[in-house]
């Protein structure tokens, strides 16, 4: 599968994901696309393993941390016309990347979000943390649907594709994982064409999520208020 060469850049934000980053990079490189790993000052061998697997590794400045800033840094350095954002923990399916970018390359969409509600999720159930995440995501998605008159199912999934020029023009400012809802709201506000495709979410390959729902709650609520204005 090499049809994405030159047209697509895959950006992978990573922080202490040495156990999973290698296979993720290899699977992404199999698409033929450019692969960039933005390393957020990892304390393990994430950067070295990503480089050995064939990714171009960008070092995120310690004074400018967060997933949101990592995506922006990757977008600035990417060479493809279309950006794909995918997590480093092995939860997303690189095999679904062609279906993500196809509508954009065909000129029928500007932003494609991989939907876990349409494709299923191994992470959606199992404990109180999963319940909080699922409930919060459903609430945010409902609010955005009502505000912008759309009917999306998964506003929070970080696995998505967008025109690089469109992404840069949105001038996103979120530092952390709130960038997903900021990106979607800004795209809808700007009149971009947003579609979803089904994608199964796996359990992360190792370790635990870096996102603490309780700690991030004020940030998510603040981001949602700005998205609805």
Folded structure, characterized:
By secondary structure, the chain is of the alpha/beta class. The protein has one domain: Alpha-Beta Complex (Spore Coat Polysaccharide Biosynthesis Protein SpsA, Chain A). It is 43% helix and 15% strand. The protein contains nine helices and seven strands. The chain has helices at 18-29, 46-52, 67-77, 97-105, 116-119, 128-148, 164-170, 179-189, 213-228; strands spanning 8-14, 34-39, 56-59, 82-85, 111-115, 160-163, 194-198. It has a seven-stranded mixed beta sheet, sandwiched between helices. Helix 8 (179-189) packs parallel to helix 9 (213-228). The longest helix is centred in the middle third of the chain and has 21 residues, at 128-148. The termini are far apart. The mean pLDDT is 91.
Please outline what is shown here.
The chain is an alpha/beta fold. The chain contains 9 helices and 7 strands, in the order βαβαβαβαβααβααβα.
Please, how many helices? 9
What is the gyration radius calculated from CA atoms? Answer: 16 Å
Order of secondary-structure elements:
EHEHEHEHEHHEHHEH
- Report the count of strand segments: 7
Q: Could you estimate the helical fraction of the residues in percent? A: 40-55%
Main beta sheet: strand number and arrangement? 7 strands, mixed
The chain-level structural class is: alpha/beta
Number of domains: 1
| Cα separation of the termini | 42 Å
CATH class: Alpha Beta
Gross CATH architecture: Alpha-Beta Complex
Record the strand order, biggest sheet: 3-2-1-4-6-5-7
CATH superfamily: Spore Coat Polysaccharide Biosynthesis Protein SpsA, Chain A
**Strand residues, percent:** 15-25%
What's the mean pLDDT score? Answer: 91
Low-confidence stretches: none
The gross shape turns out to be: globular
Could you tell me the CATH topology label.
Spore Coat Polysaccharide Biosynthesis Protein SpsA, Chain A
